[in-house]
Amino acid sequence: MNIIYNNTAKTIKKIIFAVIVAALTALLIIYSRKVLKEKASLFLKDESTYSSQAPSIELVEAHVYKIVDGDTLWVKIDDKETKVRFIGLNSPEYTKKIEHYGKEATEYTASKLLDKTVYLQKDVSDTDEYDRLLRYVWTEKVDEITEDNISKYLFNYELVHEGMAKSKRYEPDTLLQQYLTRAEQYAIKNKKGMWK
What we know:
Blueprint: H1 2-51, E1 60-69, E2 72-77, E3 80-86, E4 89-90, H2 102-113, E5 117-121, E6 133-138, H3 147-153, H4 155-161, E7 166-167, H5 177-189
Parallel strand pairs: 3-6
Antiparallel strand pairs: 1-2, 1-5, 2-3, 4-7, 5-6
């Protein structure tokens, strides 16, 4: 009787142990699948974010009809006249206040943009305290923001790159500031414009 009881107890212990191991294994498998799914969805999110690193841009066509100074101009948008201030930079003054290299910066902007069609891109702010539109000014209608497009067609970049303006961060409009900062470093190193 004692032997039967011992054998039954051992068998029950083995069954309980097997059930516990099976349950733990099942839990481990379920948990592993859940973690893998989460990691896969994170990976897919990252991939989709990565693929849209060159975002499309919303541009408004405008005609430049008057230059104020190196970083400010007047445009017509659908026959409405409005003043535009370039984002992310500061050119020397050439209005009531005359600053070193202000005349050259103003003449440079006039030579490149006066009587031309440009494409305006907003960052975060619409206007500044003087009610001027704050914009990136593109000389061609581009579909996306890429380094190549910036170096070829973004006039804000060109002004800084050629030493006609300094890169200047104006929060919160900083989408392309890193490129303008690099353009200034190039201008300083190569003694362009005001950096001669």
